[in-house]
Design a protein that fits this description.
binds coenzyme A, about 35% helix, Peroxisomal Thiolase, Chain A, domain 1
């Protein structure tokens, strides 16, 4: 398969590091030096569905495709307003598509999971045009009084349209389940017949463990897809890495011994937007005209689970 259209959508509210110093014991210097984040977009008046639908419509317009021609929609999402139906159903109705759809929760790796699933759909020969939408609102997961986690995230949506092609060169998905290092429980109630206490726990994150996992997993997955495809790091034109922490991205860059220009960044503007991070970055470099036909692109993401994945594709 190949990517023929990209789109993204951001909330209008920009929350700068300086703004966070009014509600948290933190500083622009701490956040910038530890993470690379200067500001993030946070949903205020919009709904997450609005961003997802906007990103989907932009990707379809970029691909010059009518929603009626879609054969499948996959939405990557961790949390949204609805327990049911899946957010992909809301997107499907709003854009005027008639195809089947489902959601997947791959944490920050949702986009790479969706690409690999879409690739296997193509191999089955059953579907031709697939829309992937990644829409995330981590601002509703974190405790805004917890400075260790709340400063890291931002909301947003990214989308791609795929069609038949031979542009995916290799994919690698991994899971090593140490889920208690980064997790959040649902705000659901137990029945009076269940003795467990009801709880409303915000996101729990052991930052240093996540940092170490992310760096190792990304290096391992990227090395794997390079080896599988027989492509050398020097031959890759762009490395699009999950925008979770600038220091993680720099460690990956140093390991691969590749120049900074190959690692586009937007973490300073958006923070970590979970599964939307890589497709948002892809749309930015695409719309900025930085991708040429035939360019080799590595995508890599990691997140809660722990799960991780990488993919190498030709533009
Ligand atoms: N502002 C100011 N100080 C803060 C702070 C903040 N926002 N958050 C934490 N601190 C303090 C800590 O309380 C600690 O203080 P102490 O030394 O007095 O105890 C100090 O800064 C160092 O904290 P530490 O956790 O050791 O910092 P770190 O260098 O590991 O950086 C993270 C913390 C969270 C930025 C880093 O671990 C990280 O990015 N991990 C990966 C997280 C991630 O990417 N999660 C999503 C994965 S998809």
């Amino acid at each position: 398969m190949k990517i023929i259209g990209t789109g993204r959508s951001h909330p209008s509210l920009v929350v700068t590091n300086e703004m966070l110093t009014h509600i948290l014991d933190t500083s622009d210097e701490w956040i910038t030096s530890r993470t690379g984040i200067k500001e993030r977009r946070v949903i205020s008046s919009e709904n997450l569905e609005d961003l997802a639908i906007d990103a989907a419509k932009k990707a379809l317009a970029d691909a010059n495709m009518d929603a009626k021609d879609l054969d499948y929609i996959i939405c990557a999402n961790v949390v949204n307003e609805f327990v049911s139906p899946a957010m992909s159903c809301i997107i499907q109705g709003a854009i005027g598509a008639t195809c089947p759809c489902f959601d997947l929760n791959g944490a920050c790796v949702g986009f790479i999971y969706a690409l690999e699933i879409a690739e296997s759909f193509y191999r089955s020969g059953k579907y031709k045009n697939i829309l992937i939408v990644c829409a995330e609102e981590p601002s509703r997961m974190v405790n805004w009084h917890d400075r260790t986690a709340s400063v890291l995230f931002g909301d947003g949506a990214g989308a791609v349209v795929l069609t038949e092609g031979d542009n995916i060169k290799a994919t690698k998905m991994s899971a090593s389940c140490n889920w208690d290092r980064l997790y959040q429980k649902h705000e659901l109630q137990y029945s009076p017949y269940n003795s467990k206490p009801n709880s409303n726990l915000p996101l729990v994150m052991h930052g240093q463990d996540v940092f170490m996992f992310a760096t190792k997993a990304a290096i391992r997955d990227i090395s794997n897809v390079l080896k599988q495809s027989g492509i050398k790091p020097d031959e890759v034109d762009h490395f699009l890495i999950h925008q979770a922490n600038l220091r993680i991205i720099k460690s990956i860059k140093d390991f691969l011994r590749q120049p900074e220009e190959k690692f586009p960044l937007n973490i300073h503007r958006y923070g970590n937007t979970s599964s939307a991070s890589v497709p948002i970055l892809l749309d930015e470099v695409n719309k900025e005209g930085k991708l040429k036909r035939g360019d080799l692109i590595v995508l890599s993401a990691f997140g809660a689970g722990f799960v991780s994945g990488a993919c190498i594709l030709e533009w």
